[in-house]
Amino acid sequence: MAAALLANTLYSIGFVLEKRALSSLPEVSIRQPARLLRLVLGSPLWIGGSLALFAGFGAQLIVYRTLPIAAAQGIFVSGLVLLVLLSARLLGEETTGRERYALGAILAALLMVVLSLDERADTVSQAAPYPLILLVCVPSLAAGVWLYGSAERRARHRHRMPTTGVEYGVAVGLLYGVSSLAIKGVSSYLTSSGLGGAVIDLLRSPYPYLLLFTGAFGLVMSQAALQRCRASLIVPVCTTVTCLFTAVLGTLSFGEALPHDPLRLTLRLTGTALAVSVLLSMPKHDQSATQPPIGAKELTPP
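Predicted structure:
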């Protein structure tokens, strides 16, 4: 529990620091990854945010060794509250009433997932068949890259309304969902006896290569999306997609059984369905960028 809360804090601080650093940098694009890396690596503030995210990754490894996948996601998503508070305080981002209701509904949905857990019945699995992991991860990576590219093409239209970043958040969330499964897989090798044998076994698994792919593409995609959209919206969407992806597909892939109790099973399925429905209903365009200032009068010709 302490490691999960620490990971929440580190991830929230890391995203906010990166967003603040990106706001003072020239526009970045996924079509120029070398330029993007050169710009962000020249920002001490961005490097500090990245170090916080990396430390959160270490805390996440500890969590996956001790908690079931679904339970870990329920705790991780509680970090959204801290993220929204930090975004308002340090970035000056204000969420709309509809977005606040949506975030509240997401927290309620994932609370249902947490309440569906039973420490006596839930088990922590440490292994999954490699073909099954690849069957889950490869199509998800392709879908995330395609969705991000589709959002980029639509955003380039000159007369298109500013996007809120929901599509970007879903795309990056799919990549981070795969990364989360890879972290779960890597954590299973931390219990192996003998460091040399554990490293060799790890290199024979797909997990380090999935982490390498998601790390490279996720870095470029997330930085471009963070610069264009509000962190207080894009990160909660990304986090929700990641948590749902990991809780549902990770539970099935690693063989952590669903609850047998009807009430707990209903809570888990209802919470998952509610979170997905909230994501689908969130606004796709940022109205605040197009609305006139409060008190401004509309000018009409005589």
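Summary: The CA atoms of residues 173 and 241 lie 5 Å apart.
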